[in-house]
UniProtKB/TrEMBL annotation:
The keyword Transferase applies. Belongs to the class-III pyridoxal-phosphate-dependent aminotransferase family. This is Aminotransferase. The keyword Transferase applies. GO terms for molecular function: transaminase activity. Its cofactor is pyridoxal 5'-phosphate. Keywords: Aminotransferase, Pyridoxal phosphate, Transferase. It comes from the Bacteria. Coiled coil: none annotated.
Length: 436
């Protein structure tokens, strides 16, 4: 039965009392009232396969996570100024998933806050403010994060790069400055060029921040060896390397718990968010003892909500479900299955220009002409509405909005993959001719 306000009145109230900068998905927005596993349900009880939500990582409203939160909420919630088991139990369990020397964590409340803290720590550790950032990347909504996000400062409403921000090309094997698999050295050489330019001006980078796989820039897997070469360059100058795992962490890439492991590097600072609390607002920064010590300047670091017993109970439950349900190896299996069937579709439909990604972090780049790679922006938008009409939720990504972004809850399995592939095939077969 329908429940609550009707959609039109919610939209009218949003327009009256909320900022126009809050966007909605779809021409006809959905009202979603319930979630379970990989599915969302609207006010009419219709189910939608959720292929967008990488936050509700172990599945919407997972009963083990819900129960852990409810139990702790009914017994105690405070800040970290009293001794409590949850903080240390969860910290220990989380840190056990990291390689040495990453053994100190800070709990915060959002991915933006995690990156914000990472920048401050890098500044304390190096005494430098200059930051190397990747073109097209997004790292959060705070002042420092917007400054580090070319997606924002180069985009609508942006003010361009601040003087301490230095952009390096996006390592994008399909469409970037250098194309093909063996382009790590070329991209790393460009970063060296940027660093040399700084040296000429007697500045050195304090840090380099990079997602371990690129999200907002277009679901991109960087060429093999890129981070190794770049980390070497940055560390030679005394800078630190920050890996933003807010989107890709917690086993989404299938082959490992952390995206940086797919590039065979160990960062100095790692930031975590989105999936860490399965939708409960929490995030973390993980670093080395040396950097954590450099942050002890005499100024206390206090965070009202970060590391509270409820958040820690929820974070712990997420890690337990990941392990119990073997969701990381599941993501690998389902991701490989999807890629294999998508590759078969690509042989039939020339508009599928590129299929990329790892585990359940995949991108399908659509082009209107494979030889020029001209982005099929209108076709992608049409497909997203087509998927919606078949009750599959997907979003587009990349500067030309021509990449189908696949990042469902990790409980998305072969049955769900088959449903998606079937509808994708129907969509490709019935797509009208559209001008871009
Ligand atoms: N880093 C990356 C890579 C992100 O994708 C996001 C959110 N889209 C953030 C940081 C910011 O996280 P939050 O929205 O939780 O502040």
């Amino acid at each position: 039965a329908p429940q609550g306000r009707d959609k039109a009145s919610i939209q009218a109230m949003r327009q009256q009392h909320f900022s126009k900068t809050l966007s909605l998905s779809y021409r006809e927005p959905l009202k979603i009232v319930r979630g379970q596993g990989a599915y969302l349900f609207d006010e009419q009880g219709r189910d939608y396969l959720d292929m967008v939500n990488n936050v509700c990582h172990v599945g919407h409203c997972h009963p083990h996570v819900v129960a852990a939160g409810q139990r702790q909420m009914a017994s105690l919630n405070t800040n970290t100024r009293y001794l409590h088991d949850n903080l240390v139990d969860y910290g220990q369990r989380l840190l056990a998933t990291f390689p040495d020397p990453l053994s100190v964590c800070f709990f915060v409340n959002s991915g933006s806050e995690a990156n914000e803290l990472a920048f401050r720590m890098a500044r304390c550790a190096t005494g430098r403010r200059d930051l190397l950032v990747v073109d097209g990347a997004y790292h959060g909504n705070t002042n420092a994060c917007i400054e580090a996000s070319s997606y924002k400062f180069d985009g609508p409403g942006g003010e361009g790069a601040a003087s301490h921000i230095h952009k390096v090309p996006l390592p994008y094997p399909y469409r970037g400055l250098y194309q093909g698999a063996n382009t790590a050295s070329a991209y790393a050489q460009d970063l060296r060029g940027v660093v040399e330019g700084l040296e000429w001006r007697n500045t050195l980078p304090g840090a380099f921040i990079c997602e371990s796989l690129q999200g907002v820039a277009g679901q991109i897997v960087m060429p093999e060896g890129y981070l190794q070469q770049v980390y070497n360059t940055v560390r030679k100058t005394g800078g630190v390397c920050i890996a933003d795992e807010v989107q890709v962490g917690f086993g989404r890439v299938g082959q490992s718990m952390w995206g940086f492991q797919t590039q065979q590097v160990v960062p100095d600072i790692v930031t975590l968010g989105k999936p860490i609390g399965n939708g409960h607002p929490m995030a973390a920064v993980v670093t080395t003892p040396a950097i954590a010590d450099a942050f002890v300047t005499g100024m206390e670091y206090f965070n009202t909500f970060g590391g509270n017993p409820v958040s820690c109970a929820i974070g712990m439950a997420v890690l337990e479900v990941l392990e119990q349900e073997q969701l990381v190896s599941g993501a690998q299996k389902t991701g490989d299955y999807l890629k294999q069937h998508l590759a078969a579709l690509a042989r039939e439909y020339a508009c599928i220009g590129d299929i990329r990604g790892m585990g359940l972090f995949l991108g399908v780049e659509l082009v209107s002409d494979p030889s020029t790679k001209s982005p099929a922006t209108a076709q992608t938008a049409w497909l997203i509405e087509f998927f919606k009409s078949h009750r599959i939720l997907l979003s587009s990504e990349g500067p030309d909005a021509n990449v189908l972004k696949i990042k469902p809850p990790m409980v998305f399995g072969q049955r769900e993959a088959d449903r998606f592939l079937d509808i994708f095939k129907q969509g490709l077969a019935t797509m009208p001719a559209l001008a871009n």
